[in-house]
Amino acid sequence: MTESQKDFSRREFIKLTGAAGVGSVFALARDPANASDPENTAVPTRPFGQTGVRVPILGLGGSQDLRSKRLLLRQAVKMGVTYWDTAHSYEGGNSEKAMGEYFSRYPEDRKKIFLVTKTNSSDPSRMTEDLNTSLERLETDYIDLYFVHSVSNVSHGIDRDTKAWAEKKKAEGRIRFFGFSTHSNMEKCLLDAARLGWIDGVMTTYNYRLMHTDDMRRAVEACVKAGIGLTAMKTQAKFFAYLYADIGRENDTAVELTDRFMKKGFTPEQAKLKAVWNNPHIASICSEMPNMTTLQANVAAARDKTRLSSQDMRLLARYARGTACGYCAGCARLCESALDGHMPVSDIMRYLMYHDLYGNHELASRLFLKMPRELRKRLAHCDFSRAESLCPQKMPIALLMAKAVKKLERNEMV
User: Fold this and answer.
1) Residue 162 counted as domain residue
2) Which terminus of the chain is more exposed, N or C, with fewer CB under 10 A?
3) Which residue has the higher pLDDT, 346 or 41?
4) Within a domain: residue 413?
């Protein structure tokens, strides 16, 4: 670490890393990821369940505008970030198109990529339509891993028809593996996937806040026994800091985190990635890396062999407890069961997260406005008190739902 890096104000550093994203101020000082030869920066790989395939422990998230980022994609390949994740719906299809344009220009790289895309439906006819569209956009003959996107209840849609469809598409050579992604009720979804016995892979919200709970440990263990490959997402576990009246209390823990990890040569954001990699059963982390700096920092963290100590993990756990009321843990079955009628609190929390924490205002509003108008209208009059009483994070759900309406409705009348 240089003297100029040491001279950073701790609180200035927190502001910089919080604003700029994962590891964007500096990469691991002892790692060559910033060296001039990107060929020497390949990330380690791990087995993806029992598929017989190994994947890099760091994957590129495609829920961003990739049309002007061909150089980023090229460098990702050279660095060994060859797990690429996208979806039929990302950027209105432009994410898939951008990857397809890349494969058209660099066809030899397609063989290096473990390509993942998703459909928003589990209906066989709709899945076929979406898959065909994705194949055309991606300019490829096959998908390595095909997901049903954002599953919150496996019993609603992932059934024998889904299995038959997946087996048919595998036989046709259109997909190699099949599974689903989940942002809510993750632990139950993982357990159900293991019970099904035919799911190849699952992408799940998994981070330093969630990984130590008994439910998550049991769920991951069940998937490991079932041979399911696991990809972690939402690993930074960002939270709504504006909910804290005493933000200084949170910052004290953040400063301690920064001090500890900077002395070890990496940022708190890199440490959060390494916390997930501490679990050898997580095959890969899917990270949205919008620029070269973030890509380099994440690759540096992936290549560094330093494991977080038990003291490091305890400090992260204390930070998680101190900021719990600003983080939605995705346990939708608790809060939503307390409300009259279907009220997708967990989904709305995620849309608000996209808006406030990721700065993706267009995506957040588009997803929110896809909800039925009557349902959105009910948000303004719903009593969330019982849902708040059941929330283990003690989140102010009513306040956040009101913020979602105000921020995400745009010019529409509620």
Assistant:
1) yes
2) C
3) 346
4) no
